Backbone:
């Protein structure tokens, strides 16, 4: 019974998977086996369906504008910005920007907290969309083996929604990861219309859970120049602090620039 | 008789044992099959010795044959045995075979564990390498005996460098004859899955396991190795392809239903493997031995015995 509902729902979404999507997806470099899965459990078809849905939010609902996508280096990279620590619309909009607006199109992978992996359906869905369980080894492997664009959430403060204020609380794990895998860090800032986001913020916890879609205010995402760090990744915490501050500063500047131009 | 090309295979009548005997005999080894129970047909060049590895007669056999290698496969996975029986066979049997081999200066010894010893946890990294601790005991205490045997051999590899010892940890082995937990699971007409979970699984065809035994028995192969097959598939795809029908149930219902109404009996710890992935990195074995699985993903899945439509599939591995 569930199976047939599921197939029907998939069939409806499949109608929105068009030539543009397939063509961009084919160029994004996901390597799948004869069943359409990669070795992490990513499903090509599910990814296409999710992108078809996300395209509506990206183009029509939030009317996302990008700036600085030409900064994206080829190969592996770590995306660090002012997005919340749960996968929600802001994270999705960053990944749709990389997929629909960058050349060549890039797929974004994120690290999923083990609490989400434990949750029936949620963990499975995110795995099928290409995300991996949060662990240092997994992060290194998707960067090195898959040359992935990895979206990390270094903010210690939780919450799905973007904070217009600059952050001063990034944890240092991403610097260690960047050093260990010699991956460039791409800072970015996601700017939403203040009115809309403030209204959204008032909806509180329900909204933070990602269950309510915020008002359709235009979104702007600014990508900065990639930052590269020297080192082995085995440094003490205080030795990573200058690099953490450097990226926080880069994100803050992008936020200021984005807000100023509006 | 002092034939340095002879290989003793223990547990030869077991499912991995038969795979090994067949593969080794095909490669021209003089195989000495050891088991308590007789298996109907042995390949040519195979001599059967009906004995228990834990008895004195095994010691005498090793002394008289003076084999080039011992491949120890006399392990049980039967959860109907008590923990004590399993411990005696799996742990004490392994330790004893190693001791006897060392005492008689057998130059090479091989042991087989399972990739499942690493465990399936929500926070588990994927594609773990051989350095990763075998932590499955945390949620699956029923296989503590296998983990103990695995750790014991791992320690012996480095303690006695004069014995070239290897330990293989293959992923789920599928095929027409093997009796692995996954093979039995997929052979059932109806299998339960945990509602909302669909972990990625790694599979290996039994004939590729046989090839892995041959490669590991070559001179120079020492240490613990994960052995991986042609690829990975989510559990639900695996079930569908094997021709079984999955029945997704909440975890609490599975605990009550297992062993009844046609649902297979499995220990509670095994259910974790239906929720979270336990995947390993097999690149070390491939680079050291040149191992490359010959049976593809599709043929491996479809080699599971008695599944709907299997007679018409024309599986190449079953001819």
Residues:
């Amino acid at each position: 019974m569930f199976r047939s509902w599921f197939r029907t729902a998939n069939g409806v979404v499949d109608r929105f998977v068009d030539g543009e999507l397939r063509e961009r997806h084919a160029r994004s470099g996901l390597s799948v086996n004869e069943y359409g899965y990669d070795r992490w459990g990513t499903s090509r078809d599910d990814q296409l369906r999710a992108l078809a849905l996300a395209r509506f939010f990206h183009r029509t609902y939030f009317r996302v504008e990008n700036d600085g996508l030409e900064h994206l280096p080829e190969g592996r990279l770590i995306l660090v910005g002012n997005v919340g620590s749960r996968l929600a619309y802001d994270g999705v909009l960053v990944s749709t920007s990389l997929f629909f607006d960058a050349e060549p199109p890039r797929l974004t992978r994120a690290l999923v907290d083990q609490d989400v992996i434990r949750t029936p359906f949620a963990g499975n869905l995110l795995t099928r969309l290409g995300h991996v369980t949060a662990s240092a080894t997994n992060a290194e492997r998707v960067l090195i083996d898959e040359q992935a664009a990895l979206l990390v959430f270094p903010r210690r403060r939780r919450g799905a929604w973007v904070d217009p204020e600059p952050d001063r609380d990034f944890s240092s794990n991403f610097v260690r990861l960047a050093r260990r895998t010699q991956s460039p860090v791409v800072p970015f800032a996601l700017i939403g219309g203040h009115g809309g986001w403030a209204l959204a913020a008032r909806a509180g916890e329900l909204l933070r859970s990602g269950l309510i879609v915020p008002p359709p205010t235009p979104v702007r995402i600014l990508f900065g120049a990639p930052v590269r760090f020297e080192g082995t990744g085995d440094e003490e915490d205080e030795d990573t602090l200058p690099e953490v501050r450097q990226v926080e500063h880069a994100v803050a500047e992008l936020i200021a620039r984005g807000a100023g131009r509006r | 008789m002092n034939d340095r090309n002879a290989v003793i295979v223990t547990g030869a009548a077991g499912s991995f044992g038969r795979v090994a005997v067949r593969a080794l005999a095909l490669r021209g080894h003089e195989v000495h099959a050891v088991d308590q129970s007789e298996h109907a047909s042995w390949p040519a060049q195979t001599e059967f010795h009906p004995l228990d590895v834990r008895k004195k007669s095994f010691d005498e056999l090793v002394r008289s044959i003076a084999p080039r290698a011992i491949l120890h496969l006399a392990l049980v996975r039967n959860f109907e045995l008590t923990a004590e029986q399993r411990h005696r066979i799996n742990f004490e049997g392994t330790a004893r075979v190693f001791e006897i081999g060392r005492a008689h200066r057998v130059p090479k010894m091989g042991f087989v564990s399972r990739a499942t010893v690493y465990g399936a946890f929500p926070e588990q990294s994927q594609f773990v390498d051989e350095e990763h601790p075998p932590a499955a005991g945390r949620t699956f205490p029923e296989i503590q005996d296998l983990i103990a045997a695995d750790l014991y051999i791992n320690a012996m590899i480095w303690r006695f460098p004069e014995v070239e010892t290897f330990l293989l940890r293959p992923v789920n082995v599928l095929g027409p004859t093997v009796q692995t937990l996954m093979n039995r699971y997929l052979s059932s007409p109806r299998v339960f899955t945990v509602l909302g979970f669909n972990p990625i699984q790694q599979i290996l065809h039994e004939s590729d396991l046989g090839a892995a035994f041959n490669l590991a028995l070559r001179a120079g192969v020492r240490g613990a190795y994960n052995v991986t097959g042609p690829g990975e598939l989510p559990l639900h795809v695996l079930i569908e392809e094997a021709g079984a029908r999955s029945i997704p149930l909440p975890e609490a219902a599975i605990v009550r239903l297992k062993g009844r109404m046609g649902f297979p009996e499995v220990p509670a710890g095994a259910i974790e493997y239906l929720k979270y992935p336990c995947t390993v990195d097999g690149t070390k074995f491939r680079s050291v031995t040149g191992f490359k699985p010959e049976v593809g993903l599709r043929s491996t899945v479809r080699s599971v015995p008695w599944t709907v439509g299997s007679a018409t599939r024309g599986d190449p591995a079953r001819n």
